[in-house]
Design goal:
By secondary structure, the protein is an alpha/beta fold. Helix 2 crosses helix 3 and helix 5 packs parallel to helix 6. It folds into two domains: 30 residues; 266 residues, Metallo-beta-lactamase, Chain A (4-Layer Sandwich), CATH 3.60.15.10. The radius of gyration is 20 Å and the shape is globular. A hairpin with a 2-residue loop joins strand 4 and strand 5. The protein contains eight helices and 18 strands. Helices cover 31% and strands 30% of the residues.
């Protein structure tokens, strides 16, 4: 004769397990919101875009060296925790180590649909790291897209523009692939390590208010010019930077510029990872490793 206590206990455990699975599936595949996460990868860059209903895009992968990869140590565990074992799109802003090295582990260990690059990188002292990334992508059957002009993706109500600003005569920092995201009333801009001349191009050719900005070049003096900030007037900005880094990033002068424009600034060396959840109505909830940082709106 069965014990009713154990039957009830089993039913309770089964119900709880089903609830947790459905909850995880909801946040992974049925969430109608746009979620943007800036990972804490030290003195480097990596950001994840979770589009409504499950599509994903990773912009850059942090740095590392032969025996240590932030892609493997930080990004893969974080992506796994979010239930992400496949990335639909991976964007490499430019092939400097602190943006690109971590992508090798991502490409080797996760399923990736498409890799996006600026075509100009092919003609400008092509670094060995970029060659390795392309080789791994080919082995893993990842589609490689090399852009010469802006390209637009429409993903579940989100417009994502990929904008190669560079020319072959510029530095590698200025040979970046920019990502411009628009969802309802909200706009976000990912700038790689662009400097003054590319900031001018971006502001001149694609002027528009931006609500969320990835601070160019880790808050270096070469970037975040007053003209650039005036062109985009960001409400929030995130600087991806390593604690007590050797470059002195972000520079105090740059921080003052953002304050003068009324921008709320987050920095990964202090706040840790920073996440913005954006609803179709333009409501934005912000949270960092330190806790909730409030609810606001794109205006």
């Amino acid at each position: 004769m069965s014990n009713p206590f154990f039957s009830r206990k089993g039913l309770l455990i089964g119900t709880l397990a089903a609830f947790l699975i459905l909850r995880r599936c909801y946040f992974r595949y049925w969430d109608p919101n746009l979620i943007i996460t800036f990972f804490d990868v030290g003195q480097g860059d990596s950001a994840l875009i979770q589009f409504p209903y499950g599509k994903t895009m990773l912009i850059d992968g942090g740095g590392g060296w032969e025996t240590f990869s932030l892609g493997e140590r930080v990004l893969i565990p974080e992506l796994s925790r979010l239930g992400i074992l496949r990335l639909d799109h991976v964007v490499l802003s430019h092939p400097d180590n602190d943006h690109a090295f971590g992508l090798l582990a991502i490409l080797k260990k996760l399923e990736v649909g498409e890799l996006w690059l600026s075509r100009d990188l092919i003609n400008y002292k092509k670094p060995k790291l970029l060659t390795k990334i392309e080789e791994v992508s080919q082995i893993r059957n990842v589609t490689i897209n090399r852009l010469m002009s802006p390209y637009q993706l429409r993903i579940n109500g989100v417009r994502a523009r990929l904008i190669p600003l560079s020319t072959a005569k510029r530095s590698r920092n200025n040979q970046a692939l920019i990502v411009d995201i628009e969802f309802g009333k909200c706009k976000a801009l990912f700038t790689g390590d662009i400097e003054r001349e590319s900031e001018w191009d971006l502001g001149h050719n694609f002027p528009a208010k931006v609500h969320l900005l990835k601070v160019p070049h880790h808050g270096s003096l070469t970037s975040s010019t007053p003209l650039f900030l005036k062109s985009f007037s960001p409400k929030w900005a995130v600087v991806s930077v390593g604690l007590k880094n050797q470059y002195g990033h972000p520079r105090s002068e740059v921080l003052s510029r953002y304050r003068s424009f009324g921008t709320q600034l987050f920095r990964t060396d202090f706040h840790g990872a920073v996440r913005f959840k954006i609803t179709p109505q333009g409501n934005v909830r912000c949270e960092t490793y330190l806790g909730d940082c409030g609810v606001s709106q794109c205006e």
